[in-house]
Fold:
Amino acid sequence: MNASTGSRANAGAISHAIVAAHGLRFGAATAAAISAGRFSSDDPVYRGAKQACTALGFIEIDAECLARAWQAQTVRIGAFDANQWPEAPADFGLREFPPAARSDAFAPCPERLGLYAVLPDAQWVGRMARAGVSTVQLRFKSDDAAATEREVHAAVDAVRGTGTLLFINDHWQAAIAAGAYGVHLGQEDLDALTPAQVGRIRDAGLRLGVSTHGYAEMVRADAVSPSYIAMGAVYPTTLKKMATAPQGVARLGAYARLLHGYPLVGIGGIDAQRLPEVLATGVGSVAVVRALVAAEDPEATAAQWMAAMSAASA
Structure:
C-alpha cells in the first residue's frame, strides 16, 4: 500500500467514525460509502472529516470549514477523537474570545436580547415597544429612499422612552442619521460594505447584528466582531428563500457552543411549541416575524412569549 492509498484508507475510517459518533444527533446516520466533492489537502483527518460532514448534510463551504477545524483540533490535542466535535474558536481561525474585548469590536448589547420582534413598519415597532418587547427590528421594504428615511426616523421616535432596543435592517446610513440603537445586516449586505463603511457604522456607536446560516458565514461574521450573531433558519420557513436547509436544534446547539461569548439569536420557523428546545441550545434570544404580526392579539401573544422565555431562563 503506497502513502496515498494509506491516506485514503485512513480518511475513510475517520469519516465513518465521525458519522457513527454524530449521525444520530444530526439526523444523518448512514453506513453507505461517504464521499465529498473537492479536497484542498491530503491530510487524512481533513479528508475524512470533510467526507463525514458532507454525509451529515453540511453544504460544501461548511463541510470545508468543519474539516479544517477537525484538522486543527487534532493537531492541538495531539490525537484524532471522533467523539469530540470541534467547538473551540481557535480551531476555526476565530480571534480571541470574548469578542467584545477586541479593539475593533462593535458596541456591546445585552447578552440576552429576549424576544426579538422583526416588524414591517414603524407603527408595528411602536406597538410592540409599548407591549414591552425588549428588542425589535424594523425590516422596511421600499425602493424609495425618502420613504425609508422617514420610516427609520419614525421607528426611532416610536421606541423613545420605552427601553426597547431598535435595530434597523439593511439601511445603515439612515440608521446612523436617525440615531438608532443598531443595524442588522445579512451576509450579502455585509460583504457589499467596504472596510471604511464598516468603520463608519462602528464609529457612529451603532450595534451590529449579522445573519448567519452555517459555519462559514459565522466565521465571516466574526471577522468584524459584531454585537450579536443571528443563526438560522432553525426550522422551515416560507418568509424568504433560504440558501441552506433548516439547521435544526442539534446544529444550533453546536453553533451556540462555538460562539459562546456572543449574544446569540435563533431565527426561522420558531413557534411557541418549539421555543423551549430552541432556548435549551443556549441562545439568549429568539426572533419572530409572523408569530406576532399575524396573531389575533399581538400584545397578548408577546406577553405569553416573554413569560415563557423568562421561565426558561430562570
Residues 1-6 have pLDDT under 50 and may be disordered. Residues 3-91 form one domain.
